Amino acid sequence: MFGYMGRILHVDLSKPKFSVQPLPEALCKQYIGGVGFSTRLLFNHVPPQTHPFHPDNALIFATGPFAGTMFPTGNKHSVTTKSPLTGFIGDSLSGSFWTHEVKKAGYDVIVVKGKAAELSYLFIDDDHVTIRDAQFLKSHTIPETETLVREDLEDRTVKVASIGIAGEKQVLFANIANDRRTAGRTGGGAVMGSKNLKAIAVRGTKTVYVADIEKLVELCLDLYKKAQGPATEKYRILGTPSNVLTLNRIACLPTRNWQQATFESAEKVSGEYMLEHHVTNIVACSSCPIACDHNCTVKQGPYAGATTSIDYESLYALGPNCGIDYFPAIIKACELCDQYGIDTISTGVIIAWVMECYERGLITEKTTHGVEARFGNHDAVIQLIHMMAQRRGFGEVLGLGVKKASEKIGKGSEHFAIHVKGLELPGYDIRGLKTAALGWAVSARGGCHNKSGAYEPDISGEVNRFQAEISRGKIVMDSEDFVCIMDSLAICKFLRRCFDNFYTELAKVYTIITGINLTVNELKQAGERISNLKKAFNIREGWTRQDDSLPTRVMKDPIPDGIAKGSVITGEELDMMLDAYYKARGWSQTGLLTKKKMLELELNVDHKGAIQ
Amino acid sequence: MTRQFIICDPEKCVGCQICELACSARKEKSFNPQFSRIHAVRLNTLVEPIVNVALTCMLCEDPVCVKVCAPKALSIDQNTGLVIVDAGYSGCNECGWCGISCEFGAPTLHPIKRVITLCDLCINDAEPACTLACPKEALSLAAIGDVIELVQSEVAKKILKDFSHARENSISLFERVGRIAVTLQSHRHEHSSSR
Amino acid sequence: MKITVELYGIARYLTKTKEIELSLKDDACLYDLATVLVKRYPQLLGHVIAHQTYMTEKTFKFNINGTHMTQDLNLKLHEMDHVLLFPIDGGG
C-alpha cells in the first residue's frame, strides 16, 4: 500500500490485549482517513447507547494518507469518541510529531477500548506494544508527563500524547495533547481518563512510501511557496489573534458572556498587542510550511514566567468573554489550561457564565468558595481554572460543562449558558452571522467553528450576514462536507487558500500519494458520506430535531452594541434554515436520514434507529 | 574551490522537519526521517523559549569522525571535501563512534542499509533537496569560513538571548542531536535483536 | 472629499497605521482610493492589494462603513465614508 501503512491497531486495556487488523482497501476510498476512518470505526465498534465512560466506548486516533509524507500540514490526526460532554460523536483534531510517529510505527489508526486496572500508559514501539504502569505520572501536568515518559523509556525522542490532571479527574472537557498541539474539544481526555490511560508513547522506525514521489515533490515545493504568500500571511505573522480587532469592528466579538459583541479594550487583547509584547517565537508543527504557533511569554508582573501558545479562540474565551483586558493573565490562564489539559474555549465560556451568575446574584461567594467572580477579575479566572480542573469545591459542578452546570444551578442561568448540544461556543457572535448560526446549530459535535466554516460566507460578504435565507442550507452542507475532507485527508485548514480548486487538486494529490484512482466526485461524495455517518451516529444515540438548537441568549437577546446592534436569530429563522438544510441534505423534515440517501452513499448503517 | 556546506539560521527555522523529509525523498525515494542526512532539532523544555535548528555535516577540514573510525571506513574526498563512507565488507561496521564524536551529530546510521550516511550536498543535483524545500529559507549553502560567525554564533545568540544558563543549553543541544543520530539507533539495534 | 481608511490585520501590520484620512476627488471610486493608498503604502502590494489590477488579494476585501463588503473597484465613494481594508478569513 502507498500512503497508508495498511494497519489498524486495536488495544483492549481490560484484558489487556493487542491485535492488528489489516486496513480494508474499500475503507480507504470511501472514508479517506482521519475523521472518516474514526467515525466509521466508532460506529462499528461502540454498541448503541454506551455510556461515554463505559469501557466499551472507544477512543480512536486516526491519521490520514498524507501523514508521514512531505505534503504540507499532512501530519494531523483525529481523536474520536462518544463525547461525555455532548453524548454525541466527539471528534477533535491534533497533529505534529506524534502523528508522524504513529505512522512510522506502522499504523493508520489506533482503537483503544476497555479500561486498565490501574493508571497506565501505552508504549507503541513499532510492532511491540506494551502497557506500562503510570502511577508515577499521577497528577502530573501534560508537559511534565511528556518529559517523565521519555525519562522512563530512556529515550528523549519518543513522542507522547497524554492527559493532564483534568483528564484523570474526568473533567468533561478535558483534552489530549501532544507536542504543544491539542485535540482540544469534546472531552476526549475525560474518556482517556476513564480508561485509566495517562499517555500513549510512540516510537517508530518504518518508512512511508508513496506511489509517485517525483510528482509529489514537485507539487509540494509549489505548495510550500504558496504557503509563504498572502494566502497564509495572517497565520504566519499575527496568528489567529488577528481576529480580535476585525471581529470587534463588525460586532462579532462575544464579550462578557455574550452580553456585548464589542469589547472596549479590544486593542489591549489584540494580535497586534500580543506580537509586540509577548511573542517570543513562532514555530511550526511537523511538516507545516506555514508556522502559526505563536509562543508567548509574560516577562513581568504577577504572572511573570507564564509561557504558552495563544490562538484566537483561547484569547476570546479567557479574554473579552470574561471581560479580561490584561494580556499576561490570559497567557497565564491558557498555560494553566494546557498544563491541566482542559479545553480553553469551554473553560472560558464556563467562567464567563459563572461571572454572569455572580453579577446577577444567582450565586454568591458561598457558592464559589470565596471567589469574587466578577467580569474583569483575572484572579477569579485563575482560581476557577484550578478549581474546575481539579474538580475541587465549586469546580466539581463546573467540570460538567456549562450545560449541565447551568441545569444544576438553575434560576434561569440556562438562558445565558452559551452552548450547542453541550459544547461551549467559539468566538464568533452568530447573532449577526446567520449562516454560521445554522452551521453551529446543526454541527454533529455541537457548537463549533471547525466542523463547518460557515462563518466565512458571512464575514467575507458572499451573503448578507444579517439575513436568514433558504439558500444557507446548501451553503452549510457544502461547508461541512468540505471540512470532513480536510479532516479526513487529514490536513490543516489554514492551508485551504493555497488551492485554486480544492477538490480537483486534492483528488490528484490523493492518487499521487496512494496510487488509488479517485475522481473529484468520489472525493466530494466521501465528504458527504462522512457527514452523514456522523449524523447517523448521533441519531443512533438519541438525536432529535430539538438538539439542532442555539443558546437561548442567541435567540432572545439581540446584540446591544456596534454595527450588528439588534441582531438576533429568531425561532422562525432557525426553523426555516433547518428545513432548508435537511432538504439540501436529502433528509426527512425531522432531520432523519432517508433510506435513499443511505443507499446512495453506501452507508451500511444497519441499526434501525439511524434511518427512516 | 571554496568548500561549502549547509547551514541553518535558527532565527528563521520553525522546526517543521521538511528538510528531513525532502532529503529522504531525494536520497531514498521514500519518507523516513532516519534516512535523512540533515536533522531538525527542537529544544522544547518547560521554561525556555523553543529553539529550532537543523544540523548536518559541516565538512570539517580535519574531521573527528574520520579520525575515530576504527575500520577506516570514512575518508575525505580530495576533490569535493565531502566525507565519504566505504560501505563495503571491510568498511563501516555500524559502531556509531563517528556520530557520537561529531559535535553536530551529523553521521547517521541508516536503519535498513546498516551503514553510516552523511550529507553529500546533493553534489550531483542542481540544488540540495533541503535548501530547495526549506519553506522559511532558513537553510543555505555557505562557505567554510562562515561557520563560526553564522552557525555557532547564531545558535549561541539565540540560546543566550534570555537565559543565563546558556552553557547547559548549548551542551544539551549537541547532546540531543547526537542522541537522535546515533544513540537511538544503537538502542534500537539492541532492542530489535533482543526481541 | 474626505474618506477615512481603517486598516486591519496584515494591512495594519505592514503600514503600522490604524487609520488615515485621505482627500480624494469628488466623484472618486474605490479604484482611486486604492491608487492613492498604494502610492502612500507600496508595501501593501502583493500582500493586501494585488499588483496592476489593484484588486484586493483573496484574503482581503474592502468594507464600506463596516457593513458592506465589496471588491467592486468602480464603486462610488461618498463624503465621510469609512473604507476598511478587511481580512476575510475568520479562522481561529
The low-pLDDT segments of chain B are 159-195
Q: How many domains would you count in the coordinates of chain B?
A: 1
- Segments of chain C where pLDDT lies below 50 for 5+ residues? none
Distance between the amino and carboxyl termini of chain B: 50 Å
User: Taking all residues together, what is the mean pLDDT of chain B?
Assistant: 76
Strand content of chain B: 15-25%
Question: Helix and strand succession of chain B?
Answer: EHEEHEEHEEHEHH
- Sheet-strand content of chain C, in percent, reads 25-35%
What do these coordinates show?
- The complex is a heterotrimer of chains A (612), B (195) and C (92).
- Chain A folds into three domains: 7-203, Aldehyde Ferredoxin Oxidoreductase,  A, domain 1 (4-Layer Sandwich); 241-424, Aldehyde Ferredoxin Oxidoreductase Protein, subunit A, domain 2 (Orthogonal Bundle), CATH 1.10.569; 435-610, Aldehyde Ferredoxin Oxidoreductase Protein, subunit A, domain 3 (Orthogonal Bundle), CATH 1.10.599.10.
- In chain A, 39% of the residues lie in helices and 13% in strands.
- Chain A has 24 helices and 17 strands.
- A six-stranded mixed sheet of chain A has the order 2-1-6-3-4-5. A six-stranded mixed sheet of chain A has the order 8-7-12-9-10-11. In chain A, strands 13-14-15 form a three-stranded antiparallel sheet.
- The longest helix of chain A is centred in the last third of the chain and has 21 residues, at 520-540.
- The two termini of chain A are 38 Å apart.
- The mean pLDDT of chain A is 96.
- Chain B is an alpha+beta fold and 195 residues long.
- Chain B has a single domain (4-189), classed as Alpha-Beta Plaits (2-Layer Sandwich).
- In chain B, 35% of the residues lie in helices and 15% in strands.
- Chain B has helices spanning 18-28, 64-68, 97-101, 129-133, 147-160, 166-194; strands at residues 4-8, 39-43, 51-55, 74-76, 83-85, 108-109, 116-117, 139-143.
- In chain B, the strands form four sheets. A two-stranded antiparallel ribbon of chain B has the order 1-8. Chain B has a two-stranded antiparallel sheet with strand order 2-3. Chain B has a two-stranded antiparallel ribbon with strand order 4-5.
- In chain B, helix 5 crosses helix 6 (166-194).
- Residues 159-195 of chain B have low confidence and may be disordered.
- With 92 residues, chain C is an alpha+beta fold.
- Chain C has helices at 9-15, 30-40, and strands spanning 2-7, 19-23, 60-64, 68-70, 82-87.
- Chain C has a five-stranded mixed sheet.
- In chain C, a hairpin with a 3-residue loop joins strand 3 and strand 4 (68-70).
- Chain C is globular.
- The chains are: A alpha+beta (612), B alpha+beta (195), C alpha+beta (92).
- Chains in contact: A-B, A-C.
- The interface between A and B is large, with 48 and 40 residues.
